């Protein structure tokens, strides 16, 4: 019973922490650190929520969550008698865990299919350009720049973007998209998209996804700044915004119109970096969340 209470308290703490993090102002000063914290909160919340229900469900075994589940799967009888509440908790826990796993796998499969279809389409309608080596050029008058993530990743720009941007601005945009590919931001966003699909009515889940999308863009901006001027990247974003950029295809990573001004303000007026002590404190909290929740599945309190 104690294990179930502790896991339920941890799930509640993760939910409150996520709600507070959606309005935190420090995240833009350390987007990578904030992304790690978001991921840790998501993992801990999922394991704690399902673990609390399963811990109560297997309480009659008196041997912990994981051992109790293994004993149940092996057909062993519990030490204490079952009652309707324990049975209901088991059903709810298994249902919640199944839903989370299924929506995650489903979101991954749909993203892979969308990217595979888009690669086939790009082979037909895009071309190489000596002026932008290693980049596929799409013959389209609207401005577009995005990446197709995966093992065979590609960076794509449209003919409209080539005409719209100066050479320095184009370099900045390509460095940004290359950062998405290098840091596999698609994998960062996937669990949040899956959770949004599982809980479409939850405001905190919707805001969490939006926050992580913005943080991913800021993290790519930070890496791009190593190779280009922040002002050039900011002006490129403004050009995309004023030109009415073409929507990014499903499953790809590209410019989001509703993120542009926040990114431009950050590029032109960068705030002070997050102190190292706070950065390591957040990382320590993230590690604690990720490790403590599985530990509670193993031990018996």
TrEMBL record:
Reported cofactor(s): Zn(2+)
Keywords in alphabetical order: Hydrolase, Membrane, Metal-binding, Metalloprotease, Protease, Transmembrane, Transmembrane helix, Zinc
UniProt domain Peptidase M48: residue ranges: 113-192
Molecular-function annotations in GO: metal ion binding; metalloendopeptidase activity
Gene3D superfamilies registered for this protein in UniProt: Metalloproteases ('zincins'), catalytic domain
One Pfam family named in its UniProt record: Peptidase_M48
Transmembrane parts of this sequence: 34-56, 87-109, 233-257, 277-299
Cofactor: how and how many bound: Binds 1 zinc ion per subunit.
Signal peptide: none
Superkingdom: Bacteria
The keyword Transmembrane helix is assigned to this record: yes
Biological processes, Gene Ontology terms: proteolysis
Stored PANTHER family: POSSIBLE SENSOR-TRANSDUCER PROTEIN BLAR, SLR0241 PROTEIN
Family named by the database record: Belongs to the peptidase M48 family.
Protein name per UniProt: Integral membrane protein
Taxonomic lineage of the native organism: Bacteria, Bacillati, Actinomycetota, Actinomycetes, Streptosporangiales
